[in-house]
Amino acid sequence: MTKTPIITARDVDVFYGQKQALDKINLEIPENKVTSLIGPSGCGKTTFLRCINRMNDLVDICRVEGEIKIADQDIYAANVDVVALRSQVGMVFQKPNPFPKSIFDNVAYGPRIHGLTSSKAEMEELVEWSLIKAGLWEEVKDRLQETGTGLSGGQQQRLCIARAIAVKPRVVLMDEPCSALDPIATAIIEELIDELRKNFTIIIVTHSMQQAARVSQRTAFFHMGNLVESGPTKTIFTSPKDERTQNYITGRIG
């Protein structure tokens, strides 16, 4: 990789109690690109994703070893402010989870907590920017005070994306963001991901190899807690180095 990566993982091991979920993961993630994490269920993709914003800290029996750096800062160092880290690393979950608040307040929530705006007008501008970036503004601009939970599934997921980007993070993590959506909503989100990478670095866990091929520039294949290989998406899908990758892509394992 020619450019300096924004995220570097070195020898990352993750344990849930005695069970090892990830084994010596070494991966570099470039800035302003979409990186897909693919592999069978239970292979460690989501566990790795959750390491990047320390979501695994919330699991009592989880232990993370090794080093993950974001822009040269070791995010597991003792002095790291986890709240500040999570404002830099947004997360969009598999199932849309808007807050039971208005559309406006869903998006304004993060900026309010982090004190990102100093006036009502500034906040309104930021909410509009976020909804435009999330491809939702035209659909909701006249109903910002309506509850976010009243939107359709695809709209709710775009609202969650708007909420994640409202604090202007450097990285956006997406854990199977389309798995609960219909094909039309999925196509809208995929188009959006391509647009968002101009402003953000995106890491997406997906079960759909077609989706990985469509949206990402780089792909990492996980299998049984190991990172088998990573590289440009086209290379991984057309001429993988490892037989396990070939077998997964052709449907022999999965």
From TrEMBL:
Pfam families xrefs: ABC_tran
One MF annotation (Gene Ontology) recorded for this entry: ATP binding
Alphabetic keyword roster: ATP-binding, Nucleotide-binding, Phosphate transport, Transport
PANTHER family hit by this protein: ABC TRANSPORTER I FAMILY MEMBER 17
Residue stretches spanning the membrane: none
Primary gene name: pstB
Keyword Transport recorded: yes
All residue ranges annotated as the ABC transporter domain in the record: 7-249
InterPro entries per record: AAA+_ATPase, ABC_transporter-like_ATP-bd, ABC_transporter-like_CS, P-loop_NTPase, PstB-like
Domain of life: Bacteria
Protein name: Phosphate import ATP-binding protein PstB
